């Protein structure tokens, strides 16, 4: 679990390894301080590829110390090296989020490099795509474990401590399939509908204590998770044509919304599904 230092100044950790309490900037300070994550610590699952990687890099460049968690050590190490080259402190933890015990061990390890996270982003996902009538119970269990149970377990581990400290952010990645059916993706859709409900429940539990919990809902984005559809130019073009902007999404399209939801700029935003889809959901 390498830890990469950087030369960019940030708030030091307390002797216990926790992030110091946030103090508001002086009146009149640049409004960009609303979006600064200096002194914060973020955990991003799925942070070595796709949308999760883009979010992890954005949070790091906004000032956060970042721990990324995923399965593949090579991709994890590559991402941390990229962050180090940009002067950002980062570390990685390898964990299989389909395994409940491994997820819990990974969560414990993620708190070691920089202390307890202030921001938890659940971006790891898996989709198994047979027709619903051919989806096995084992497939269903995997879909639920990675897409729904892992965000639940991470929320249970980190949400209460955030509430005790009086500040935190939980950002879950949901899906268009939380609100509409897509072919050959029924189990994934059910899990992501669960993520939407989980996010509202996390908000109800912890928002009164300063922990804002929201879900980002992407449109179609070419990532390893959507490789099957992205490889079909006809289907990919059809999805782009359904957006108002006229193109499919890119992982970098989620950098801004992630920084907003992770920062104090979103202090009064919680329990929401934020659609970042080029207008797809409005057509």
Written description of the protein model:
- The structure is a single chain.
- The chain is an alpha/beta fold and 283 residues long.
- It has one domain: NAD(P)-binding Rossmann-like Domain (Rossmann fold), CATH 3.40.50.
- It is built from eight helices and eight strands; from the N terminus they run E-E-H-E-H-E-H-E-H-E-H-E-H-H-H-E.
- An eight-stranded mixed beta sheet has the order 1-4-3-2-5-6-7-8, sandwiched between helices.
- Helix 4 links the parallel strand 5 and strand 6.
- The longest helix has 29 residues.
- The N terminus is likely disordered.
Concise summary:
This protein has 283 residues and is of the alpha/beta class. It has eight helices and eight strands, in the order E-E-H-E-H-E-H-E-H-E-H-E-H-H-H-E.
